[in-house]
Amino acid sequence: MNLDLSQLTHWRREFHRFPETGWSEFWTTARIADYLEKLGCFEILMGEQIINPEFVRGRKQAVVDKGLANAKVYGMNEKWLDKMGDYTGCVAVFDSGKPGKTVALRFDIDCVNVTETTDPNHIPNKEGFASINEGFMHSCGHDGHITIGLGTALWIAQNRDKLTGKVKIVFQPAEEGTRGAAAIAASGVIDDADYFASSHISFCANSGTVIANPRNFLSTTKIDIRYHGKPAHAGAAPHLGCNALLAAAHAVTQLHGIARHGEGMSRINVGVLKAGEGRNVISTEAELQLEVRGENKKINDYMTEQVMQIAKGISIGFGVAYETEIVGEAVDMNNDAELVQLVEEIALQQPQIHSIDDYAFNASEDATVLGRRVQDHGGKAIYFILGADRTAGHHEAEFDFDENQLITGVNIYSGLLQRLLG
Amino acid sequence: MNLDLSQLTHWRREFHRFPETGWSEFWTTARIADYLEKLGCFEILMGEQIINPEFVRGRKQAVVDKGLANAKVYGMNEKWLDKMGDYTGCVAVFDSGKPGKTVALRFDIDCVNVTETTDPNHIPNKEGFASINEGFMHSCGHDGHITIGLGTALWIAQNRDKLTGKVKIVFQPAEEGTRGAAAIAASGVIDDADYFASSHISFCANSGTVIANPRNFLSTTKIDIRYHGKPAHAGAAPHLGCNALLAAAHAVTQLHGIARHGEGMSRINVGVLKAGEGRNVISTEAELQLEVRGENKKINDYMTEQVMQIAKGISIGFGVAYETEIVGEAVDMNNDAELVQLVEEIALQQPQIHSIDDYAFNASEDATVLGRRVQDHGGKAIYFILGADRTAGHHEAEFDFDENQLITGVNIYSGLLQRLLG
Amino acid sequence: MNLDLSQLTHWRREFHRFPETGWSEFWTTARIADYLEKLGCFEILMGEQIINPEFVRGRKQAVVDKGLANAKVYGMNEKWLDKMGDYTGCVAVFDSGKPGKTVALRFDIDCVNVTETTDPNHIPNKEGFASINEGFMHSCGHDGHITIGLGTALWIAQNRDKLTGKVKIVFQPAEEGTRGAAAIAASGVIDDADYFASSHISFCANSGTVIANPRNFLSTTKIDIRYHGKPAHAGAAPHLGCNALLAAAHAVTQLHGIARHGEGMSRINVGVLKAGEGRNVISTEAELQLEVRGENKKINDYMTEQVMQIAKGISIGFGVAYETEIVGEAVDMNNDAELVQLVEEIALQQPQIHSIDDYAFNASEDATVLGRRVQDHGGKAIYFILGADRTAGHHEAEFDFDENQLITGVNIYSGLLQRLLG
Amino acid sequence: MNLDLSQLTHWRREFHRFPETGWSEFWTTARIADYLEKLGCFEILMGEQIINPEFVRGRKQAVVDKGLANAKVYGMNEKWLDKMGDYTGCVAVFDSGKPGKTVALRFDIDCVNVTETTDPNHIPNKEGFASINEGFMHSCGHDGHITIGLGTALWIAQNRDKLTGKVKIVFQPAEEGTRGAAAIAASGVIDDADYFASSHISFCANSGTVIANPRNFLSTTKIDIRYHGKPAHAGAAPHLGCNALLAAAHAVTQLHGIARHGEGMSRINVGVLKAGEGRNVISTEAELQLEVRGENKKINDYMTEQVMQIAKGISIGFGVAYETEIVGEAVDMNNDAELVQLVEEIALQQPQIHSIDDYAFNASEDATVLGRRVQDHGGKAIYFILGADRTAGHHEAEFDFDENQLITGVNIYSGLLQRLLG
């Protein structure tokens, strides 16, 4: 394998054809592992080696089961299944054998629940690498992330003798919904990292630019609340029911009224509500899907606590059983200046990069959970944005990005390793 | 004292001048006791002899204190104060010394919080016996009830040798708001009664008619809920508050949504809501005054339980302390046929009565609490309506009733005693 | 064709195999029409001859389209399609050519959305006439109703020369959800009827009994409310959205708080609520499925008006567009004494009937809409219950009824015609 | 009159004795006018010369009437009453007769609804100048503001020949609740001002410091909503009522759920809610007192519009009449750099001032309404804080401030005039 655009494009297009949604990236994980194995210098960690089951967020067994069945149909290398157990994703560990720092890099691998456009001008259609998995598409660019991760692994393999310390390449499942990072962080697999780096391709930045220090990552928690009531005939005996739908409606009105936090931005949204079985039956089942956000973790925690308190109060007031489930989370994070400066220097050395831009992120990304974990253990972290022209917005059916930037991505990561471990 | 209309009118007008609100009928109780004492054949019970403090409903100490101060100004006979202790009302017990049945009669003695009209054509103004206690008025006719009770006592005194068994005449405080009966019932003072009778003057019936068997007494519970929160500046730190006003508003929306009972009529009304200290402060205090009703005790109990559950759920959801207080209660009651027939017979023997009418009460009266207590102990009970023309609706400032019917009232009660104990 | 149990059972079992849900009874309607045509003495009315499109309730085009496709697969006689147009159901008119009264009979023809049990002891399984349409089943006995209607038509054909006046046999679509009657009533097709009769098989009555005069038909209106908002990102720009989910939740809390009606029983239930597209998007679509009921039409109308008022207020308060749709309705109805007496007499002449029972219906049936229409035009109406043993409750997968009662049903209807038109 | 601390202290203590609440500062206005008249160089504008009645906020006629009666008792100079008409406050206009700039200065004159402490160590008690108007107290320091205004007027009178252009000294009523400024701004009386200055004494700053450029003035609107329903007996005929209390409770739950604004800080608080007449009556009257705030006028306007929309929607949904009243308002304002620099220079020239501090105001002040009006007409504006030690927090019964700073205040304003008009 040569580390060139042709190889990177090949990888990207292969992964683009087989998009898999969060926690069901079985084919994807196996394929990554196949390539890593070929490189010959990585220990490959999987399953509970890298996942703490207690912190797994937003994983639906039915989705996973269907994903696994599909992965087998797509011809995954089933030898990895034992090692994975229930969980997708892997961590490739390179140990130089020499003393030195430990650097953790993180690439997310899941797709989005979107059906790819059939527009014949869409390049994946033209070139024949569109999604074969209807309803799913790599329309957020994580196929590019996997590729940059593999490219960086290839660079390590080719430069293994010049490096000191260790590198841990995290191929993370389930970034969409900010679900996957918490379980990897809690496994402790990167607790020994001195440096952490991750990035997103495209986003708001065009080809030729890098945003080395995006500001305003929002803390967020994604929560499901479910109420379970007692049915009764709405005409004959309404007093015998415990009304889950009515409970849920009142919960919504209370949740949206959580007091604003005086110290900074807070958010609440119940985005989905499904309740009830029939017009003439007191409803027994209701589900709310909601999220809170905060300018920082303190504010986000305040919002989360209020949600939990309201969920419980409603359950008591209406005599309905309930559960709450945290199905996703991300935190705020500030990049460390040392790494920002390094990324800026390296980026500006790339012929394709002509400017370093400023940007307020104002959204959430669960790489922050891993970055903050490293910072909390005394390390330094960065999350940057790698500019790339795109044909449509992220998560849209027409999304595609400028593949030329894949090589820039690999160059920045390998540049970082050279400076930190060279 | 002669048992004639002149005496009865004298009494009624005296009590009309000194109206006292529920639980503060100190002047009234003392005056009743003075008259009973003069009759020479009654044991007079007061205070905790007739009141179980645990079941005292809707008594506000500040109102009581002000009432007592007024009563002294009005020249009450203060010798009764020791016996009363904290509680107004009294029970006059006549014991014939001969074996026989026990009959309990009940007359309520409190006034309404209404300011009497200054219309010069209003008879109390014309004849100079209008309320001297501004803001309070006997505009429900309880001055007439007291009078009929005293008239019946006078009849007993005059006929003491002809009677067997015992009579217990209950002068009950705080009927308005259905507050006083529960504590008297719970004291056990009429648990030995074989018969119980009570009545209301006027109501929906004109002079010349008696409603011997009004139907549809509603069970009701009157409840106050108070929430206590934590203040915070609404601009600077809204998240530090626990919002009692917001809690109360949500409580109202939940309370009015309590499911209808499939087996019969139910009611809920939050009639008063007061909350908040200032526009720019997260509110710390809120009070709801509400009532529930039911076609029967079972339905009313269902409504009450739902209220209590909601009150608690809200407290938890909003992190506010709370209390609930039952400030009044009445139950449904069915008159016993034996007494209905007796009252009809006696009534039709009165020259002033020309018809027995039918009526659905569809409201609440706490005499039912006493009546049901007697029924539950194996006795029989009746509540009837004594027709009397009126000048305005009950509780209105222009209310007055036909005093000629006072003698009819005494005749019905004395007729009952003659038939049951003669 | 002989009018005997063998013929009736044959019909019932044929219709049982091909259950079709409300407004999609294409196969069923065509098959009924085929049989009626063979009898040779009926004019067959269909489509807008019997349906006023403005009053069609609860018809979903997608369900109809699928139903029609299935009906073709089942081999319906497609010659009727033109006449039907968009609407199922038919009315068979018999005109004796002699002066006389007009009698309207009504039989409902739709099935229930239930999958029939696979229990081998279930007779339709044993005898091989179970539903071939998965997810749908005649588990309310309307297959029996169709059969009795056809049997009565056969009797008319056999007795055509002895009859005077007219008979109109209404085969009504979409009774489930009380959806179909309003459109037929509004077409005016039975406005000239002097008598109206309809019935339900089994229900609460066993073989051998008839309930000639069930009481307490509840008025009901089934309503859908849909809110249409404006999306916005819940993190970045919540203020730009118009939140349909939040509007819907507040609507629910207001709807359940509609004041009880002082004059009698009222009901409200929002039984289904679906809202929202994603956790992090201000929701744009919400649907509420609800019903109100009342002891009589006045109370039901009060409830309906309150619902409409609340739906509108919410739309204004939240800046969301909305629509309301009445998807079903039934009214209260009192049977006319003349017909009750006739049915009782005729029923007791049947060897299989041993008693006439009393019953409070306490539910809703849209035959009342047709019966009240006839009454409002000066005619007389009856709805009765024809007892029949059943193996499980109506709408359950194990439901089956005693086919022996089909002949009793035909005998009662033909008896009525003999008495009224003979 | 000498312009010295003795004169200033005399004035401050005189005004401290006669505190008057917003819109009822009759004694105060007359007394200010008396002093201004004596100075001989001011035209005194009053009533509708300076007040646009359409923009008068939060004025209660009963409070005004009582205030006027009191003012007469306190011996106000009643000759000013005609000129005042219904409105308190005055503007003193000094015209040098020479061409030049126009400078507007603003001093607020109302007190707070607080009863002054009786602590004998409280200096107003010790020195005998405590409030004689129970329930009211200058506990926000506006007595000091009046004094600085009069001192500045005295300085103008003494330096009248050296000045060019014009000075307009605004003595504004009703700052508490941010009620008075809107009507003065809307009168246009300071539309010709090139410069505007106002200040607060003490607040968060101690003696010796000046905050020349406080940041983060919040826009705010104070709103009352009143609902008027229809009474009905809660037991007998709840359906006949239109429930104002229930409407108000639902309004609260909707108001607190107004979506956060994505562009910056927003606030909502319903601080007071009073509703209902009695437990057993469907409530007919309800009042909500609330405020919204925004980081800027755009956000505050968004909040206000949402409130108005919700108020209307509720009125329609519940069939209750309603009104909304804007009872107060303030806007955000940025000080102009030229004036900030001037105030800093002048302040640091005062022997008593040793530092210029920075501060985020994070609250609302209606001087901003006047300042923004001047800015919108092309002028420049400043609002600064004059440090002064205090004995307790503003609005507390024990509040008092360091009178020595009054002379500093006058010096800053006269310094400004010297620099701008000298």
Automatic annotation (TrEMBL), chains A, B, C, D:
GO terms for molecular function: dipeptidase activity; metal ion binding; para-aminobenzoyl-glutamate hydrolase activity. Gene3D superfamilies: Zn peptidases. InterPro entries: AbgA, Amidohydrolase, Bact_exopeptidase_dim_dom, Peptidase_M20, Peptidase_M20/M20A_hydrolases, Peptidase_M20_dimer. The Mn(2+) ion enhances activity. Its cofactor is Mn(2+). Mn(2+) binds at residues 140, 142, 176, 200, 395. Keywords: Hydrolase, Manganese, Metal-binding. Residues 224-311 form the Peptidase M20 dimerisation domain. It holds the Pfam family Peptidase_M20. CDD domains: M20_Acy1_IAAspH. GO terms for cellular component: cytoplasm. GO terms for biological process: folic acid catabolic process. This is Peptidase M20. It comes from Rodentibacter genomosp. 2. The lineage of its organism: Bacteria, Pseudomonadati, Pseudomonadota, Gammaproteobacteria, Pasteurellales.
